[in-house]
Fold this sequence. Notes:
Number of helices: 20
Strand content: 15-25%
Distance between the termini: 36 Å
Amino acid sequence: MGASPSRSKVPEAIGYGGAVASIDADATAIGISVLRRGGNAVDAAVATAAALGVTDPFSNGIGGGGFFVFYEAKTGKIHTIDGRETTPMAATETLFQENGVPIPFAEGMTSGLSVGVPGTPRTWQRALQLWGRKSLNDVMKPAEQLARSGFVVDETFRTQIANNATRFAAFPSTRELYLPGGQPPAVGTTFRNPDMANTYRELADTNLKSLYRGQIGEEIVKTVQQPPKDPASTLKVRPGKLAESDLARYEAPLREPSKTTYRGLDIYSMAPPSSGGTTVGEALNILESTNLSKQSKTDYLHYFLESTRLAFADRNRWVGDPAFSNVPTRELLSQRFADSRACLINPAKALTSPVAPGDPRNPQPCATTGQGVAAEIGSKHTTHLTTADAWGNVVSYTLTIESEGGNGIVVPGRGFLLNNELTDFNFAPLFPGVPDPNLPAAGKRPRSSMAPTIVMRHGKPFFATGSPGGASIITTVAQVITGRVDRGMTLKNAIAEPRASQRNSASAQVEKEFLAQPETAALIARGQGFSSAPAEIGAATGVERLPDGRWIAAAETVRRGGGSAAVVIPARR
Length: 573
């Protein structure tokens, strides 16, 4: 089989039979092929994710984790799988401290310390067992073939390697795969990963036993405990604490989704340990009492920025792994609490960050408690895919290995990068003297910002969306929802809209296209601060169900080189 041809990317597709939207054309095509062969949205989501592990390996893969949200058409229910990584049982809250002081973030990032138990393979297995029509072997085979035959390198793939060249060069297993001859592969060349193809084959043949209770797992543990660093490298790479028993213990549990209502729509997403559902939901609830559709764009953006500023103040104080602390999920999503926060918004003047959190268990109008902290910067390099099928099922799935390139270490002979997800924990308490819900502990899941979301109207799917982007996932998803629901944009245009991400800091993370808007000067006059170093924020995808039964698949027009949307049977709008 020859290399995959360079497929063109299309940001929007409309038609019947199902839809797939992802950041990569090869992955989207594989998802569509599974639908055409009788697979459902779950089968297509797993096949697309497996392919993204090949073509977008610096953002996701079998070495990482994620959150899977599924609308089941036959029951009308929303299900979620928590595929978040867990800490080794040997971890304590001082995992990232030495002599009582947090280690530098960069040294946590590229280390064995930051590797959590991979949850992505177990997520695939669980989803297929519960709701799929195909076997793990069936849906992984196209990605295995893609890894073996190769795909055409694009600018994004090459740039991501170049961005990490110093880290990657420190590990012979990573260097040999991604820096052949000491350089990233050239755009237009064919990239093959036979080690990954063989790993996929072994995972499928053993139904994951090789990873969670066998040879692949042993090799992961050895890589974590004895990082295979080039002796000539000056990089400081700490060993980790992962054990084979940690892999054997891992489960990807079903959780109740987060739920709130907005403009008469039901918004379902991921509950803790992700902060995505609660923080998007709280921001929307804060906006509920303001008619955004009638406002000027400046006013809309001002209220949007203030809503996420406040929601992040509460996220940072209250959200963590619910198995380890009493997370007030229901209270964070209550309209009463949101209203007590919304009254802090001044339409003429931005709040001063960091705003202190509120008390969701005892909300008082305009009251705050304690001190505020800004959200962490976090990784920008996650991936999100969205699928739908002819039966009306919908999947919204966000998955990651955390930083671009994870912890930088390819498991020798296995072709995949390990995650550095445990850096999502706070290295030390954020609020002095106050219990921190997001410190490391044995077997704990770090707080996430992933927000795979399904929006329901009258009990049926309206649209689904999600995004990569670390903590900016939350603001991106909230912006896409308000753009589609309040501002009357198409899903494609809501995804394409210039972004700013206010996470309770003095300056919002911002894209240059946002700064170029005429409204930005008026926002600055109201006290809104924007970073002087513009970034690219998110690479969202979505699907939408039209009243006549057609699907719209939507992806990025420009970000990450554009996304890839497709349907099974194209039709005109």
